């Protein structure tokens, strides 16, 4: 599903006070089945942007096209519900929202809510449990008896069970150890590549961006600084410096090797494999 922002602004109304232009005149087109990393400092508007795509936050002006639906200031409830059934949102620490007595009931909640038939509910519960790599033996367990990493998978399975075309995730790796985080990102990448789910992920880790994302969206004060392909993004050293962004480990290593040897590699290394290939090509290995 395609996502198109057309001059979108948004704000939060807090009683009489209005936080102005949290999202500020954003125009942006995100192609179907792409994997976008959303980055920017705290308060830049990353979470708000995800909420706009999911219809939790409504634009104050402009419009957002999500597939065949249009979200604008006057979008009605039916449209918002339809968009929510197509866009799965995984909040930060989604395990905090687990509530049911069993894992099965928790995962089934979304599809039931969207009026899946009993048979479809069962199928999607099993399918999404398998997708997140959890065993069926957990279905009758209380979600609260599981480990933190397992709880996060259950929460993710609950969103996947609604069969979204678009998945937006707010720092899905936060608070997990390196391995748990890598597993979650690998899983999201698989959904993106095999099921052609359009993915937007908020992350602070440039390694995640380099390894998994095909596009980078950098926000600052509610505005789009840049939206570009990952390789082009990490090739623009001036921009990285200007925005004080860390380099992914592989690129950092490459820059050190280039400095020490005086050899400039032909392209930037986004993964370990790419770095090794280039070292071999330059006869440094
Ligand atoms: N519910 C809310 N009510 C009022 N202001 C909010 C609310 N949520 C976020 N904001 C403000 O909107 C701005 C963008 O927030 P957010 O989208 O959460 O940024 P990020 O996810 O990049 O940290 C911040 O200035 C924040 O204080
Ligand atoms: Mg946020």
UniProtKB/TrEMBL annotation:
Gene3D superfamilies attached to this UniProt entry: P-loop containing nucleotide triphosphate hydrolases
CDD domains per the UniProt record, alphabetical: ABC_cobalt_CbiO_domain1 (cd03225)
Domain of life assignment: Bacteria
Membrane topology of the entry: Peripheral membrane protein
Translocase is among the record's keywords: yes
Residues of the ABC transporter domain: 3-246
Subcellular location: Cell membrane
SUPFAM superfamilies named among the record's database cross-references: P-loop containing nucleoside triphosphate hydrolases
Pfam families: ABC_tran
Protein EC: 7.-.-.-
SMART domains, A to Z: AAA
InterPro entries noted in UniProt: AAA+_ATPase (IPR003593), ABC_transporter-like_ATP-bd (IPR003439), ABC_transporter-like_CS (IPR017871), ABC_transpr_CbiO/EcfA_su (IPR015856), ECF_ABC_transporter_ATP-bd (IPR050095), EcfA2 (IPR030946), P-loop_NTPase (IPR027417)
GO molecular function, one term: ATP binding
NCBIfam families associated with the record: ECF_ATPase_2
Assembly and binders: Forms a stable energy-coupling factor (ECF) transporter complex composed of 2 membrane-embedded substrate-binding proteins (S component), 2 ATP-binding proteins (A component) and 2 transmembrane proteins (T component).
Function noted in UniProt: ATP-binding (A) component of a common energy-coupling factor (ECF) ABC-transporter complex.
Protein name in the entry: Energy-coupling factor transporter ATP-binding protein EcfA2
Source species: Amphibacillus indicireducens
């Amino acid at each position: 599903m395609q996502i198109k922002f057309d001059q979108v602004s948004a704000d939060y109304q807090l009683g009489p006070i209005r936080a102005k232009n949290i999202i500020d005149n954003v125009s942006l087109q995100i192609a179907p089945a792409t994997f976008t990393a959303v980055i920017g400092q705290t308060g830049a508007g990353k979470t708000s942007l995800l909420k706009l795509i999911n219809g939790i936050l409504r634009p104050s002006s402009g419009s957002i096209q999500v597939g065949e639906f249009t979200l604008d200031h006057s979008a009605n409830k039916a449209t918002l519900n339809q968009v929510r059934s197509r866009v799965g949102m995984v909040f930060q620490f989604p395990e905090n929202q687990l509530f049911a007595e069993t894992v099965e009931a928790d995962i089934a909640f979304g599809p039931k809510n969207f009026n899946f038939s009993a048979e479809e509910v069962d199928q999607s519960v099993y399918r999404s449990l398998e997708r997140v790599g959890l065993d069926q033996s957990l279905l009758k367990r209380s979600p609260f008896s599981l480990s933190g990493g397992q709880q996060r998978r259950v929460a993710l399975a609950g969103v996947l069970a609604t069969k979204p075309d678009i998945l937006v995730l707010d720092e899905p790796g936060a608070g997990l150890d390196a391995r748990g985080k890598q597993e979650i990102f690998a899983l999201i990448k698989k959904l993106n590549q095999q099921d052609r789910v359009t993915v937007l992920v908020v992350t602070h880790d440039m390694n995640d961006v380099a390894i998994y994302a095909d596009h980078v969206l950098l926000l600052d004060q509610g505005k789009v600084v840049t939206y570009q392909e990952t390789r082009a993004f990490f090739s623009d050293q001036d921009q990285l410096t200007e925005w004080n962004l860390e380099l992914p480990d592989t690129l950092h290593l490459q820059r050190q090797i280039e400095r020490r040897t005086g050899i400039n590699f032909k392209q930037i290394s986004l993964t370990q494999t790419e770095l090794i290939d280039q070292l071999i090509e330059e006869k440094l290995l």
